[in-house]
């Protein structure tokens, strides 16, 4: 795949490639391989010893070597299913957007500014296009709400027609 290097043993390359194919960290590949080989999860101290031997001495345990080869063979055949292998538990979530909160804040501020600007729009019957009573669907609710807050009664549609 992509990590082939003359100094790195084939078993280590297989681990690197299998981890890349499954989009997971190498230590998580070791954990998954252990769980599939032995049928149980591995303890942190045990996996750390095995992984340290892999990192510093290029020693790949048989259960990880077998699993990495299995993953690469399935990927080459086009039959790789990460969910079937149980790899979804270990896949890395995508990183959050770099300035995500800033963009959400700016968007919210612009929406509030837009709504405030809409409140300042007036309707002049002499120069504006004719509008139905209360300006259209939804505006009746806003008008009723505004009049309820101000403590006044909303005008009837007949009274508004006389203004036109």
Topology:
Blueprint: H1 10-22, H2 26-38, H3 44-57, H4 62-77, H5 82-85, H6 100-119, H7 139-150, H8 157-163
Give structural notes.
There is one protein chain. The chain has 164 residues and is mainly alpha-helical. 13% of the residues are buried. It has eight helices and no strands. The protein has helices spanning 10-22, 26-38, 44-57, 62-77, 82-85, 100-119, 139-150, 157-163. The chain folds into two domains: 10-89, no CATH class; 100-163, no CATH class.
Characterize the main sheet. Answer: none
* Number of separate structural domains: 2
Q: Report Rg.
A: 32 Å
Determine the N-to-C terminus distance. 75 Å
Count up the helices: 8
Count of DSSP strands: 0
Mean pLDDT: 82
Q: What does the oligomeric state look like here?
A: single chain
Tell the overall outline.
rod-shaped
Order of helices and strands: HHHHHHHH
List its salient traits.
single chain, 164 residues, mainly alpha, 2 domains, 8 helices, 60% helix
Give a quick rundown of the structure:
The protein is an all-alpha fold and 164 residues long.
